[in-house]
Fold each of these.
Amino acid sequence: MSIGKHCYFAIMIIATAVLSTGVARAQDYDMILQGGHVLDAKNHVDAVEDVAVKDGLIAEVAPHIDPKNAVKTIDVSGFYVTPGLVDLHVHVFAGTGERGSYAGDNSVYPDGFTFRAGVTTVVDAGSSGWRNFEDFKEHIIDRSKTRVLADLNIVGAGMRGAKYEDNLDDMDGEATGKMALKYPGVIVGIKSAHFTGPEWKPYEQAVIAGNIAKIPVMIDYGSRRIERPLYDLLSTKLRPGDIYTHCYSGLRGEQDPETGKASKAMLIGRQRGIYCDVGHGGGSFAWTVAIPMIQSGYQPDSISTDLHIDSMNAGMKDMLNVADKFLAMGQTVPQVVTEMTWNPAHEIKQDQLGNLSVGAPADIAVLSVEKGNFGFVDMYNTKLMGTQKLTCQLTVRAGKVVYDLNGISADLWDAQPTSDPKQAKRWTSFTERPFGGGAHQKFPVSVPVK
């Protein structure tokens, strides 16, 4: 072999080695969110940091991560970077065709309402019971890009109107608990809701189910009855770690009528470790209740929407709109983020969620704060004015960009791409657009999120 050929092969070997090293380095991370203000309550982070993602998990959080180590780097400077938001109270058992039912037409399909508000995990709050949960799982939970978890209704038939929800004969704590045990980590709580009778049975059976499955009970207390006062529910019936939703409704004794502050029932509940969940909904949040309770120090443990077909177009718009109301009442951005991330995840014993720990699911929200004059409306169509509101700029679910309001992850159409288009599936769930023929010839390829 000639010296020329030896030189040629040597050069090729060196070039291949260099290229291989560069490729390996470029593949250290799928994506870096660079320069954002990270808020992570679990890990006590409140600082400007970079967040790196690899294979659907958080890979590193540090003040500076070299962008050369990632397929894609997204500049999020000037924005907050938070764990994906966790909404503890929604109704998403859609598609059954049942009119006037939360196991039907009153529910919404989750993916159209979650990512655009930074929400990556929702808990369906009792739309299904043990009799129809597996139908809900097959048609909604298993088909949604949003992580959908469930509180199982103590009523076996689920949340289908008073005919079902007042049926004491269909409240079976043992059957409900057994179904919850069958799907650990998917069924994360037990729900009692809308009961109008005087009996304690719904709550007692819910606790039985919760004890069997070792999961919390969430209570929507239904009609106010003197035979079952709220004080007794929160002081004796529920357990520490259970959840009382609609805590600022004022409809069932949450507020002291003389002082406007939290009632003795709510205070004893907090002392015993029962969580206060907002559950705004269409009829469960009033300024006349929330403002004096908040001003007296009774803050929520978790912010949630009670999303359904009526609430989303009334006073409650989405998760961030509910958070905006607490900003208007004096809470800080770190406070409301904690109440939408780490706190709700911890309440349902899903501590792998709601944080940006290395190894945690790469569910991330990128939020901006807009300044101006904004009106925030309660269930009585009265408003409180505020000067700031949160907007979701970008949502990452399982390491993929699933929502991008202003294209901060995108390249300009007439510029050279900042990452290899062939590797787009590493960081985005948007339609992959491989290059071929012309520089911008497009061949849509679906890239699913798992």
Amino acid sequence: MKLRPVLLVLLILCGFYFLTTHWLPSGALAGLMHRTTTTAPDGTTTSNGNGALGNFSLTEAHAAPEFDAEELQNIAVYKKALPSVVNITSTAVVCCDFFLQPVPQQGQGSGFVIDNQGHILTNDHVIDNAQAVEVTLSNKKKFKATVVGADRIHDLALLQIHGASDLQPATLADSTHLLVGQRVYAIGNPFGFSGTMTRGMISAIRSVILPSGNRIEDAIQTDASVNPGNSGGPLLNSHGDVIGITTMIASNPNGGADQSAGIGFAIPVSTAKAVVEDIMRYGHALRPSLDIVPLPIGPDEAQQIGLAANYGILIERVLPGGAAARAGLRGGNQLAYKGNEQVMLGGDLIVGIDGQAITTPQDLSNALNAHHAGDTVTLTIYRGQQRMNVKVTLSDAKQVANGQDA
């Protein structure tokens, strides 16, 4: 008696299978539903159905839509740049767990390949204090990396991997003539999501202070969305060429964790090129320096002091043994106050370097970053009311700071 229900169900299923596979032809059940199709002038088709569950309609394009010019440019930038972008995992040992044992801690960042020898450019803070660095290429292959050199002042580091084939180096652009409003793209690994691209524009070119306290001149401010993990990745122009290295975000003070607040900053690639050249040549970055304490001068200050020019950089102090001291440049000898700040007046006023006008500290930084330590430049100065040219051989700022250049 207990088998009868089971046998009855099996008999019904077998009968339904036999009926649908042998007696009813294919599509015979379609007659149970009424369906019409209409085609619009643009080629889209609309199918209208009427069945037991009610009415429905479905509109379909006749083919995949063509990309517009803007989309094509986005796709081209991504395809060109992505193969050179890498994910960087740094492992540091921190102290301590419950049993006072060292604990490994990992950090994530981005970088990009700059040559076929496996050199990779990234931020110094991405690999700072790391005991091990691993690079993952866009093809997901992983390599151990060595730190060739780093420049904490500019937050840049140069890595190298060995054994990688078919590397595609990024194309480095000229970042000295960027304009606010230019379209830019950022590619990196925000929050570990590799190969992520965002788009925005250059919002400003300004001097910014890094979390380390060091100042970066001509930093590229952008509204392209960048987040933790983007650090060290490339900031690209509309041709897919690198114009900057993404380095810092302005955190949302109400957001809790660091996250994009619509403001990110990138180190100009022209600065990075100079740092890379120094590291490749000397093993460390040489920061060209005049070895002076500068005081920016504007028209109001120039008029009050009675200077011969209404702009420039006044030398407050000449560092002993430095480039300016060796060239015979003079610092101030008259104590004065600028607000509550003590300043020294009476020194030489720098108004030009190699024929280029120097009106702000940014102009001075740009002119120096275009050279290397050991290069000789011609300074145009005013000493009192006398205009004169002085040749100065730039020194390495690190040497003077460490007392090695005497």
Amino acid sequence: MKTLDKIPTTKIQRAGQLVKTGFKVGGNYMAYYGEKLVNPDLTREKLNENNAEDIYDGLQNLKGSALKVAQMLSMDKSIMPQAYVDKFSLSQFSVPPLSAPLVRKTFKKYLGQFPEEIYDTFTPDAVHAASIGQVHKATKGSHVFAVKIQYPGVAQSISSDLAMVKPIALRMFNIKGKDSDKYFQEVEHKLLEETDYTLELKQSIEISTLCKAIENLRFPNYYPAYSSAKILTMEWIEGRHLSEFAAQNNDRATGDKIGQALWDFYMYQIHFLKQVHADPHPGNFLIDANENLVAIDFGCIKQVPEEFYVPYFELAKPEVINDKALFNEKLYELEILRSDDSPQEVAYFTALFHEMLQLFTKPFHADYFDFSDHEFFGKIAKMGEEFAKDPQLRKMNGNRGSKHFLYINRTFFGLYNLLHDLKARVDTKTFEKYKTF
């Protein structure tokens, strides 16, 4: 894989990279429509592949929040063409890393010493590279470390990056209308948090300590003495990324075991800690040699305030969903319905969310749920397509719900997809046994 000797850091440099990418995409469309004149039966498949490759190539050279948007988009398998999902998924753990000289220079800047002055050994080439940082393997005495180094200029460019990719982000979160700022500020706030490795270190130690009793779940140890605001050092754990494991696993019982650990981990965080690891993509989880689930990244933690938590999970109960008055009350509490809505908007959005919640909350309606159920995921995908094409929805003020929906809903979409990849059958109630820990 090629390495990068520099990353565009100024607003002008980064905007120039996006403009260059835009020209390539424009050329792809011109070529597509030219071929379409000759061959009316031509599909958009090749166009999607070319656009996905050009967009990803441009974003991976920028890194930072621009590439993070691609990573987040890759989790939404129901709204993106497969070519984009396949290409953008690479941003989860496999992008061009910084070159060895740039790593050395960056390390000196962030920790005040070169790697060889701290560790006995340090791999000059990255082992993994993602959107915000890359990981190197190091040793000191008997300890083996994973050392995560943040890319230069990432934190400083978040605001300008998001302004440039705002149209993509708004589509990603299905946000419309003039009052979208509260949602967009939520995205920016979380991305800024992800660039603060001092905060991530604190969150990592705290959550791994609180969740240590969960069966078949493992966390690395963390080393504050070898960490800073831009460098995070943790224990090196051998394992396969969850997506790689899921693609190769043929033992249903093992998939169930790991899926149960994943479900219990998320339910315990949400219901008892009132905070949650809000970035559930395969690159943030390993499966070790003993078939334990290993959680390795706590940069994106979403706090779940009580005033949101209570009505959100009451809407997961069939008795509330099917009680018209109660259901309506919760929709107002969660800002899905608003006081300035017209009668037509109230009727439309009540029906829409009733249909959506009846389907999406099914895993909570029984003691067990089979996430290998293709019919369940097919219905979710179909519903997403219908909403995207609904002309009535586009005409209405589509900004619905508390800002907390953004990361909580994405957490559940990501969790559901990971469990589906594992073909896991889970006991939806076992997490409750950890309440006393």
